[in-house]
Every structure is written in C-alpha cells, then in structure tokens.
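Hey, I'm writing a tutorial for new members on how sequence and structure tokens pair up, and I'd like a real worked example in the thread rather than a made-up one. If someone can provide the structure for the chain below, I'll link this post from the tutorial.
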Amino acid sequence: MRVSELVTTDEIKKWKNGDIITIKAGTGKGKSYLIKNILYGFAKGLHNNKKILMLIHRVDCINQFQKEIEDANKTDVIKINSYQSLEFKIKNGIKIDFSEYAYIVCDEFHYFMSDAAFNKTTDISLNAILEQSNKIRIFMSATGDHMKGYINNIKGLD
C-alpha cells in the first residue's frame, strides 16, 4: 500500500497547526510522492496558498529533489533545504525565518540520531523544528522508530 492511499487530502484537511505527523513507510512506498504531489496540491489549492519547507539530509538527495521540483514547476510552494544549513545558520547566529511555511517536512528524520555519532549539531536543527509549534511538522522515514520515541517520550510531544 502506498502512503498516498492512507494520507489523502481528506486526512491532510484534519491536520492543525502544532501537529506532529510521523510517517513510517519503506523505500518506494510514496513518502516523497505524498509531499511533492498530494500535499503540494493541497497547499497550493484555491484557498490555501501555503508553502512547504522540505528538509533533507544528503546532498545527492537534495539535488535529486530540487531537480524534480524544478522540472515539475513546483518551486512556488516547495523549498528544499538541508538540516545542516539550518544548523550552520543557527550556530553562526543567523536568524532563520520559518514564517512563510505552513508545513515543515523532515525527510529521513532518523538523521537526527543516526548522524549524531559524527555530527554533534543534529539536535540544533531538531530543536529549531520542534520549536515551530505554529506549523504542521511532518517527519518521514523508513527507520524512524527511535526518533519517534524520542519526540514522544523525551520531548513530550506527539
């Protein structure tokens, strides 16, 4: 079953500012498709006109997603960025303006734990995202169980 069969436009309509949505699905099950098509269409829709910030963990993935977004003429709604760029800006005192985004999508969100062994700043981007309590935050991964537990149990968010 594909993610977009479960997370339909009707389901997206139920999401509220402050919600944390976690999507666990294997590779090729449509997590990215959901964002680039279903959520994009909803965000751009007649009365919505909302923007999506999609955060990605690796340069190759960023380049691939950016090309797909550009080729599909969807840069009007979706902005691609890296977790590391957020971390760099915050560490260097550069303010990040999340105000234009209604949705913050964390792709491969296991990044926050899996990369922590060699990147000591993953918590910086995670905290910045979790602090955006007036946004809908979407965390997606095939292997995000530990992170979901961390967000729910340690951070006290769900």
